[in-house]
Structures are given as C-alpha cells and as structure tokens.
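Subject: for your reference before the review

Hello V.,

The reviewers asked for a structural picture of the protein, and I figured it would be easier to keep everything in one thread rather than splitting it across files. Below is the amino acid sequence we used in the manuscript, unchanged from the supplementary table.
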Amino acid sequence: MAIASPGNRSRHELMSSAEGHGSTDGSVTYGQHRPLRVALDTTYAGVNRTGVGIYSRRLAARLLSEGNALRLDVRCYGPACVEEATPIGIRGNAQEWSINTHGLLPLRMAAFRPDVVHATSHIGPLWGPGRLVITVHDLIFMHHPADYNPLWLAITRATLPGVLARARAVIADSYTTRKDIRRFLKIPQRKLHVVYPGIDHPPAIADAEAGKTPDMLRNLGMSANARYIICVGPWVRRKNLPVVLEAFQIISREEPDLHLVITGTGAAGMKGPAPEQLISRMSRPMQEKVHCMGFVERQRLYLLLSGAAL
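And here is what came back from the structure prediction:
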C-alpha cells in the first residue's frame, strides 16, 4: 500500500497539526530553523509480510526517500524499515513484545528527540518523546476475541486505551474502524481521522518472469489457459473461507470450467479453519477445482492477480 494522493496529504497534514507548521509550498518545518523530526514506529506491524506490514514498509520507504523534499527528518524503527519483507526471526518478533514497545523503544528514540511519533499499527509507546499519532487498521479482535491468543489479547486490551488516550491524533483506515474506536474505546471524535491507505504499485516484473503464469497453473493441476478466481489472505476466521467456498460452488453451476486458487497460510495467534479441511467436505469434482498455494511472493502474486477472471 504505497502512500498515494488524498491519503498522503491527510497524513502530512496530521503530522503538521500534531506539531509544527505547514508552509505555502507544502513543506513542513518546525519553527523557522529545522525540519520536523518524525519517528516511524513499525515495531508492531512490520513483522507481517502482508497487510499492515506492506502498509508500514511503503510508508517508511516513501517518507525516508522524500523526507528532505518535505522538510522532514525521518527515522524509522522496527522491521518495516526495509522496503521488501525479509524473514523475521526471534529478534524481529521480539520487537512486538511490550517490554520493547513501552520500555526500550522510547529510550532508543530519546536521542533522536522526535517532534512526532507515528505508530503504524494500533499499539505505540505509552510514554516517551514526541507527539503520538496512531494508525488503527481494525478492531476485529474486539468483535471476535475468542479467535486470538489469550495472552496477546490481554496485553492489547490492557495497553490500547492508554495508547489511544496519549495519542494526539488517531488515524482510522475506514469509517467502520472509526465507529468501532468510538464504540469500544470512547475516544473523542475530535482525535479521530479517517484516511484510506494508498494503492500499492505493482512490482517491476522481468520478461523472464512475465510468462510464468501458465507454469504456475500447470503446477496446480490446471491447464495453462484455465480461468480462475483468486482468493488472497491469511487463513483466519475473519476472511470467511467457508463463505468463499460456498459462493464458488454456486458460481460453478453457471461456470463449470472455472477454478478457485487460494493463497496464504495460517496466522500465528489467530484461529481459522485450514482450507484443506473445508475442501475435504466438498464433492470430489469440486475438490479438483480448488487449489491451495500457500504464501506467494509479491511478483508471482501479481502475475496470478493479473491473470484471474475475478
């Protein structure tokens, strides 16, 4: 999710209003002498290879590359400080632990002395330098708490109200998320701002890669020119895979040659049915039309998306 048009301007203005001043040429300065110092906290979101992880990596890459033009002094903290996802080991996962977010991270940022700290997911430091801006992508864990790891849920519920109370501004990805923040956490309306994420740019695909879609389809047991629907996302309950499979069976009555390709894997700490279990309950002819690929790296995913009928 690259930073794009209206969303860019809104996030830019939020940073400016949190601390500092906007100028007539669109730049932001703190006082008259130095750029606005912005710390990006990606420690809670950057471990994800998709979704909020992509959002965090794109945001970090764009602000780091265009900081000078915007009169921003940007420093990034966490796994999303590199543009492409890399395997996350114990060190990366440890950055999500509360002792890091609320203990070590504020100490690390102290030397930088940021004017604004933007946490790219719903948990940011409870204390430390700078005015805090939080992006909340959703509150699904409040709607379906039984789907989440009990320890993670307990820590999140204990810290989230304090984090949002400290924040100068709270960005919601949608009006539904803003409504949920008001419902569950009673955050004042004046602090809430709906800013849609941008649209991710497709990756550069080498000529040698561009023709590999037929090979991928053949590896799944499909013909090279097969028509297919693609379902992308982790195998967790909120993605509603049973409904996807039910809908596919209905469509298949009218489109018997259509296939369904499912990408993704299970997500740590979140419950959800494995597609294989759901597929095993379908008739044998339907089972032969449904194909699970697991995690698909970005270039191959774009090839699959570009070739999909839906």
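For the response letter, the relevant points are probably these. Confidence is low (pLDDT under 50) at residues 1-9, 19-29. The radius of gyration is 22 Å.

Happy to draft the paragraph if you're swamped.

O.
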